[in-house]
Amino acid sequence: MPAIVLIGAQWGDEGKGKVTDLLGERVDYVVRYSGGNNAGHTVITPDGQKYALHLMPSGALSPDAMIVIGNGVVVDPKVLLAEIDGLAERGVDVSRLRISGDAHLIMPHHRALDRVIERYLGSSRIGTTGRGIGPAYGDKVARIGIRLQDLLDPGILRKKLELALREKNQILFKVYNRKAIDLEATVEEYLEYAERLKPYIAETRAMLWDALDRGETVLLEGAQATMLDMDHGTYPFVTSSNPTAGGACVGAGIPPTAINKVIAVSKAYTTRVGAGPFPTELFDASGEHLRKIGAEYGTTTGRERRCGWFDAVVARYACRLNGVTDLVITKLDVLTGLPKVPICVGYEINGVRVDDMPMSQTDFHHAKPVYEELDGWWEDITKARTAEDLPENARRYIARVEELCNTKISVVGVGPGRDENVVLHPLLP
C-alpha cells in the first residue's frame, strides 16, 4: 500500500500522536520527517499509561512497526538517547528504530544561540523553545551543518565543528558576551553519543523505497502543523521546517507519487503556543474553560497554550494546501457543558468580509473573526463510539465543521485514550 501522510491542521498540539498510535498497529513503518525536539506527542495507551514523545515517532508504542527518523529532522543526540533509555526502561522495544545518516545534528552552539537571540529580541521574540532547532536548520541551509553520519568519522566531525565554531564563538562572545563553546569537549561528548547511536544509523530512503515496493504501508508523521510551516504558515511566527504534506517527501526521501492519503488532525477548538496572530483567541472565562478542561499545556515546554474557538478559515486553508483526504477532529468532549459553541466562519478586515486566508501578514494580524453560534450539549460523550451515540447538537457541530472545511471527517476524538473515538469512516481499509 502507498504512503500516508499525517499532519496537523492548526498550530500544533492537535493530537497527531493519538492518531499515529491508533494507526500504528496497521502500518509497517512510522516515519518522522520534520522538526526536532521542539515538538511533543502525548500518547495514552489502553492501560492508562501516558507517554510524552519528542523525537521518537509515535509509532514507537506499536509493537511491530519499524520507526524511522528521517533526513528532514534535526536531532539532539542527548535528548534522543534519553528518550530511548526512558522507553526501554518502560519495556518498549527500541531496537526497531532507524535514523537517517543525513539528519542534521543540534550542537551546543545552536542551543546557546537560540536562547540568547530570543532573549535579545525582547517584545519581538518569536516564542521558540530554546532548543536550538532554528539555528540548526539555519546551518543546514548555509551548508555548514553537521550530520548524523559525521559522528561515524571523528576526523570529519572535528573539522566541521572547528569550522562552525570559528564563526559561532565570535558571535557568542563578541556580540552577546557569552562563553565560547569548547571544541575538544564538544568533540569528546559527541563521539560518546556516536558509540550508542551507531547501530541505529541507516540509509532510510532505500529502506522506505523497498518497503513501498513490497506493498507495505508507510505512515509519514509530521511534527508541529500547517500554520507553523516555514513557507505556508504565519511567518515569522513559525517553525524552521515544512511540516505540511509536501515536506513529507523532502524530509523522508520518498516520491510524491507514493502518497495516496493525507490525514489532517484538528482540535474541535483552536490552540497556539508562542507568539503570533491568532484571530479566535479568547481572553475570558470561555478561554480558561478550554485550557482547564482540555489540559492545554505544552508537552515539550509546559507553557500554557493560548485557546480560542474553532477557526474554519484556517482549517479549510490547511485542507486545501495539504490535499487532505480525511479529517480527524479531536477533543470534542472538551466542548461539553458550553451553552453555545461558536465557529469562526470568516474574517472582517478593515470593514470587509473575507472567507479565505488573507494574503498579507498585516491583514491576518488585523483579522476579526466572524462567528456562527451553534447550540451546545451537556451529555457526557466520552463513551460514544458511533455517531448515533453522540447528542444531536454534537452531531450538528461536526456536520457544520465538515461542511465548512469541505473535507470528509473520518474520526472524532471524544477523550484522550486511544480507544475514545467515534469512527465515521475507517482511516485504513
From TrEMBL:
<comment type="pathway">
    <text>Purine metabolism; AMP biosynthesis via de novo pathway; AMP from IMP: step 1/2.</text>
</comment>
<dbReference type="GO" id="GO:0046040">
    <property type="term" value="P:IMP metabolic process"/>
</dbReference>
<feature type="binding site">
    <location>
        <position position="143"/>
    </location>
    <ligand>
        <name>IMP</name>
    </ligand>
</feature>
<comment type="subunit">
    <text>Homodimer.</text>
</comment>
<keyword id="KW-0547">Nucleotide-binding</keyword>
<feature type="binding site">
    <location>
        <begin position="413"/>
        <end position="415"/>
    </location>
    <ligand>
        <name>GTP</name>
    </ligand>
</feature>
<dbReference type="GO" id="GO:0044208">
    <property type="term" value="P:'de novo' AMP biosynthetic process"/>
</dbReference>
<keyword id="KW-0460">Magnesium</keyword>
<feature type="binding site" description="in other chain">
    <location>
        <position position="239"/>
    </location>
    <ligand>
        <name>IMP</name>
    </ligand>
</feature>
<dbReference type="InterPro" id="IPR042111">
    <property type="entry name" value="Adenylosuccinate_synth_dom3"/>
</dbReference>
<protein>
    <recommendedName>
        <fullName>Adenylosuccinate synthetase</fullName>
        <ecNumber>6.3.4.4</ecNumber>
    </recommendedName>
</protein>
<feature type="binding site">
    <location>
        <position position="40"/>
    </location>
    <ligand>
        <name>Mg(2+)</name>
    </ligand>
</feature>
<feature type="binding site">
    <location>
        <position position="13"/>
    </location>
    <ligand>
        <name>Mg(2+)</name>
    </ligand>
</feature>
<dbReference type="InterPro" id="IPR027417">
    <property type="entry name" value="P-loop_NTPase"/>
</dbReference>
<dbReference type="InterPro" id="IPR042110">
    <property type="entry name" value="Adenylosuccinate_synth_dom2"/>
</dbReference>
<keyword id="KW-0342">GTP-binding</keyword>
<feature type="binding site" description="in other chain">
    <location>
        <position position="303"/>
    </location>
    <ligand>
        <name>IMP</name>
    </ligand>
</feature>
<keyword id="KW-0658">Purine biosynthesis</keyword>
<feature type="binding site">
    <location>
        <begin position="12"/>
        <end position="18"/>
    </location>
    <ligand>
        <name>GTP</name>
    </ligand>
</feature>
<feature type="binding site" description="in other chain">
    <location>
        <begin position="38"/>
        <end position="41"/>
    </location>
    <ligand>
        <name>IMP</name>
    </ligand>
</feature>
<feature type="active site">
    <location>
        <position position="140"/>
    </location>
</feature>
<feature type="active site" description="Proton donor">
    <location>
        <position position="41"/>
    </location>
</feature>
<feature type="binding site">
    <location>
        <begin position="299"/>
        <end position="305"/>
    </location>
    <ligand>
        <name>substrate</name>
    </ligand>
</feature>
<comment type="function">
    <text>Plays an important role in the de novo pathway of purine nucleotide biosynthesis. Catalyzes the first committed step in the biosynthesis of AMP from IMP.</text>
</comment>
<dbReference type="InterPro" id="IPR033128">
    <property type="entry name" value="Adenylosuccin_syn_Lys_AS"/>
</dbReference>
<dbReference type="Pfam" id="PF00709">
    <property type="entry name" value="Adenylsucc_synt"/>
</dbReference>
<dbReference type="InterPro" id="IPR018220">
    <property type="entry name" value="Adenylosuccin_syn_GTP-bd"/>
</dbReference>
<feature type="binding site" description="in other chain">
    <location>
        <begin position="13"/>
        <end position="16"/>
    </location>
    <ligand>
        <name>IMP</name>
    </ligand>
</feature>
<feature type="binding site">
    <location>
        <begin position="40"/>
        <end position="42"/>
    </location>
    <ligand>
        <name>GTP</name>
    </ligand>
</feature>
<dbReference type="GO" id="GO:0005525">
    <property type="term" value="F:GTP binding"/>
</dbReference>
<feature type="binding site">
    <location>
        <position position="305"/>
    </location>
    <ligand>
        <name>GTP</name>
    </ligand>
</feature>
<comment type="similarity">
    <text>Belongs to the adenylosuccinate synthetase family.</text>
</comment>
<dbReference type="GO" id="GO:0004019">
    <property type="term" value="F:adenylosuccinate synthase activity"/>
</dbReference>
<keyword id="KW-0479">Metal-binding</keyword>
<dbReference type="InterPro" id="IPR042109">
    <property type="entry name" value="Adenylosuccinate_synth_dom1"/>
</dbReference>
<feature type="binding site">
    <location>
        <begin position="331"/>
        <end position="333"/>
    </location>
    <ligand>
        <name>GTP</name>
    </ligand>
</feature>
<keyword id="KW-0963">Cytoplasm</keyword>
<dbReference type="GO" id="GO:0000287">
    <property type="term" value="F:magnesium ion binding"/>
</dbReference>
<dbReference type="GO" id="GO:0005737">
    <property type="term" value="C:cytoplasm"/>
</dbReference>
<feature type="active site" description="Proton acceptor">
    <location>
        <position position="13"/>
    </location>
</feature>
<dbReference type="InterPro" id="IPR001114">
    <property type="entry name" value="Adenylosuccinate_synthetase"/>
</dbReference>
<keyword id="KW-0436">Ligase</keyword>
